[in-house]
Amino acid sequence: MFKSLVAFARKLTQSARARTFAAVTFASAAVLAAMPAASLATATPTETKVGEIATSVGSEGVEIVLAILAALVSLLVAIIIIPKAVGLIKRFV
User: Fold this and answer.
1) 48 and 19 housed in the same domain
2) Are 35 and 47 found together in one domain?
3) For position 39, what pLDDT does the model report?
4) pLDDT tens per residue across span 21-44
5) Between these two residues, 18 and 76, which has the higher pLDDT value?
6) What is the percent of the chain with per-residue pLDDT over 90, rounded to a whole number?
7) Do 54 and 28 lie in a common domain?
8) How far apart are CA 24 and CA 35, in angstroms?
9) Residue pair 13/19 in contact by the 8 Å Cβ criterion
10) Where are the alpha helices (DSSP H) in the chain?
């Protein structure tokens, strides 16, 4: 596989057109990586407010999911551990 990559790179560098294309591609990729388009955009007040609301709704959703998980754990405790504890108590009484 390495030999095929080297052969491919050698083929690309043989033609002037391919070298130019590679240089332009490398330069444009470097520019795009240096200045992402998202950092140039400014958020409007409406977008900011929507972001705040989405964050608060997301955190409320996390709280709801955690409450459901806590309820499931307590249900497992009620189904599995409590009968075993009752059996242990009956054995000693």
Assistant:
1) no
2) no
3) 58
4) 777 887 777 777 776 665 556 777
5) 76
6) 5
7) no
8) 17
9) yes
10) 2-14, 16-34, 37-40, 45-76, 82-92
Extract the tokens encoding 3. Answer: 């030999």
Residues 74 and 93 in one domain: yes
> Residues 56, 93: one domain?
yes
In terms of domains, do 76 and 86 share one? yes
Tell me how far CA of residue 4 lies from CA of 18, 22, 28, 93, in angstroms. 18, 18, 26, 79
Q: How many domains does the chain have?
A: 2
The first and second tokens of residue 48, run together, are: 């900011």
Domain that residue 25 falls in:
1-41
Mean pLDDT value across the chain: 79
pLDDT digits (tens, 9 = 90+) for 57-74: 777 888 888 899 999 988
- 3-state class (DSSP) for residue 15: coil
Between CA 18 and CA 26, with CA 20 as vertex, the angle to 5 degrees is: 100
